[in-house]
Every structure is written in structure tokens, then in C-alpha cells.
Amino acid sequence: MAALSFNAAGAESVSQILNSSANKIKSAKSLIAGYTITADGHSQSGIMTISGERFTISSPQMVSWFDGKTQWTYSAHSGEVNMTEPTAEELQQINPFAIIRSFNNRYKAQLLKSPAGSKKIRLTALSPKSDIKGVVLTLNAKTLFPTHIDLTMSNNQNVSIAISRVEEGSTLPMSHFRFDAKKYPGVEVIDLR
User: Fold this and answer.
1) DSSP per-residue string spanning 23-50
2) 54: phi then psi, degrees, rounded to nearest 5
3) What is the CA radius of gyration of the chain?
4) Rounded to a whole number, what is the distance in angstroms from the first to the last CA of the chain?
5) Residue 104 and residue 114: Cα distance in Å, rounded?
6) Per the CB 3.0–4.6 Å rule, which of 36, 84, 88, 177 could disulfide with 67?
7) Residue 184, Cβ neighbours under 10 Å: how many?
8) Within a 10 A sphere around the Cβ of 176, how many other Cβ atoms?
9) What is the pLDDT along the chain (193 residues), one digit of tens a residue?
10) Which residues contact 167 (CB under 8 A, 6 or more apart)?
């Protein structure tokens, strides 16, 4: 009985931590995060701006905009912009902050032993068909913003996202989250919706 009570209290505690983090992310007018993503021995750094469900991601290789429905991704290599309407799971792979907001519906959460000043949480996908089968999420204990996110994909590929900073910003117009063709003259837009 004592073990069951302890596990229930631990599950409630991890739920409270994740809900608080999700609410903080959702209620911010905007968040600006610096990140470095590493996969298959390659790293790429950039800046992400988030406002509710909307985001922009900017790196030397690509820029991506998502207005809550449509995503535009500009590749510097191809000189093209692809337009898509990503699924909720695809959004989690693109915007790691979306994982925190969707943990209740998609993951089982477990609090792990954490270094001082951090809260470390393992998320295990509830669906065996999930593209992301596991996540180890490290949050700053004071701000509850993520500092590191390690993803294990269904093909066992590991993706590591180090978040160097998260700052709260002001309210941004919808145009900030949409592709502006005037800024990319001559770029071909390919509609994949």
C-alpha cells in the first residue's frame, strides 16, 4: 500500500510540474529560445520564437514559420519554400516546446533523479505507433522552461536539443509567423497541403 501511495504522489507531482511548465509557456506573450540540435553526429544552432501554438525557427540552413495551421519552410540549400499542414505529432518533432503542452494526452511521465537546480522527467509514448517513443526532458527548477530535451525516435535515432536561453518577449503580430514572399523574391513556393 505504501509503495502504491508513493507512486501516486510521485505521478501527481510530475503532472503538476509539467502542467505548470505548459501553462507558463502557453501564457507568455512570446518566448525566444536559443537552441542547438544534434542528430546523427551533426549539429545545427538557431533561434526559435514561440507564441501559443505559433512559432518561427531560424538557422543558417533554414527558416520555418507556423501560424497555427500552415507551416512554411524555406531551405537555403534548395532555394524553395514548402507549404504544409503538419500533424500534432509532426509539430512535436519541429517544436520541442509542443511536447510539454501535449504530455497529458501522449505520454506517461516519470520524475527522474535530477541535478541541483533542475527537474528531469522521462516521458514514454502511450501509443506504440508514435514517431517519438521517449523523451528525457530537463527543466530549469526555477523558471520551469526546458534546458535540454533528448528524443528517442521510433527508429531508435537519438536527437538532442540543448536550449541555451529562454526569454519572455512581447506580443507579436500574426505576420511574424507567416512566410513573407516580399522578403524572398524569386523563391518558388511548393504547396504540399
Assistant:
1) HHHHHSSEEEEEEEEEETTEEEEEEEEE
2) -85, 150
3) 18
4) 53
5) 21
6) 177
7) 16
8) 16
9) 333 333 444 444 898 999 999 999 989 999 999 999 999 889 999 999 999 889 999 998 899 999 999 999 999 889 899 999 998 878 877 887 888 877 777 889 999 998 899 999 999 999 999 889 999 999 999 999 999 999 999 999 999 999 999 999 999 999 999 999 999 998 999 999 9
10) 31, 32, 33
* Residue 72 to residue 32: CA distance in whole angstroms: 19
Residue ranges of alpha helices (H) inside 95-182 are 97-101, 103-106
| The three grid cell numbers given for residue 43, joined into one nine-digit string | 549539429
Assigned C-alpha cell, 79: 532555394
